[in-house]
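FW: tagging you since you asked about this chain on Friday. Here's the raw sequence from the shared folder, copied in full. Didn't touch anything.
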Amino acid sequence: MSELHRKSVEPMALRAGVPPRSLQAFLGLLEWDEDRVVDRLQQHVAREHAHPWVIGVVDETGCGKDGRHTACVQRQWCGSLGKVDNCVVSVHTGYALGDFHCVLDSDLFVPQKWADDEARRREVGMPDDVTHRSKPHIALEQIKRALGNGIRVSAWTFDELYGASYDFLDGLDRLGQTYVAEVPRTFCGWAKEPAILVRPTPREMRRKGKKRRFPRLAATAPTVSQVQNLLNHSPAFAAQVWTPVHIKNGEKGAMVREVKAVRFFMRRDGLPTRPHWLMVTRVPHRGELKFFVSNASPGVPLEWLLYVAYSRWPIEQCFREEKDELGFDHFEVRGWRSVHRHMYLSQVSHLFVNKMRRQLVAEESAGRRLAPVGADDFFPWNRGTAVVSAREPDRRSGPLRAVAVVPEPPLWPTRPWPHSRRRRRADRLSPPAQHRSQDLPHTNHAKNTGELRHQPRPNQVVLGE
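HL: got it, structure written out here
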């Protein structure tokens, strides 16, 4: 937290009056359990900052580095530089609750060339069990670890790099986690549930030759399509008009997006999944399209899903604060263990600074006899909400009609409307607590539609009714 221009080991040690070699040895040679540091950090966040509206964020960042000796460095896309350059890339999971945000976990991305080069692995001290893993795979392991430490979120959100991974989305489903994923326009699925044959017909049973696999798609089932083609040609989308939805108020004013939403069936092992939601948004009067897929239960407000979809900025804020203020990208260590220790200590420092900032804001607010801004003040909607309806008795995939115009976008943050505290207990999206000793995954709360049914207010129009 000093005013040093570079916050690597040597300048920090000289400022503190300690030998630089001692601090370097602390990062690289001394025995202490850095993994337990991460566990304790997550347990502290779960204990002190639990809330039913927490949003989990997955993202990556790059740190430019010269040379070829730092662990996992190579020429690759560096988001912070906006180009392909020599850098190390790390995958992170974040935690966002109103004005509080922090990084929960960090891991280096191991390129395939590094995983296959035994000499370079020995040079940086890379453990033998570390192999090349995709970034979605790393993120899924981090989420499992966070759940084991008591972290609970209402929904996870991430960009299309992770949304394009069917295995990642399937893994979140198995963990009972709700997500709102940005997906590429080439993401495939059905807007109308295709017919499935679950057992052979009498004619099939009399058929000679190789037996067909069951269950399988019926011959009359529509062909799986990309989401961009569904938007242009599906009757479910054609029957709707672009509906403006006020998502939140940002630094540049109200964020309003026009949206269309339909039921969506993803493809998994050649068969359709249970119903999901496909949302397409665009800036009003402009052609910039974004596609989002969510496994949220019917009855969850559409405006809340859009709020989650556009809530990736907290982890970007974490990266910016850690790099600008705490020297996250100033490390000069090269070893595998040293780099991870540096990242973990940056997380701890960032959490401490965030808690101190909140404490000072609370003290200043108390001095003015004002209540401090908390998570309840960041209720993302207060009128004009469109709701994804749970009333689907005949499971038809007809067009969804929505009108969610907010004539006068409220100031943000805003106070929740009356009785919301009572409703929040019933509308909690996160799964129940699970002890680390449990072997079974969390119950898929997305199937319990009765617990998440939202009753519309008088000026609401409900999707799908």
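FW: Confidence is low (pLDDT under 50) at residues 375-465.
HL: agreed, and Residues 160-299+382-431+443-465 form one domain.
FW: great, closing this out.
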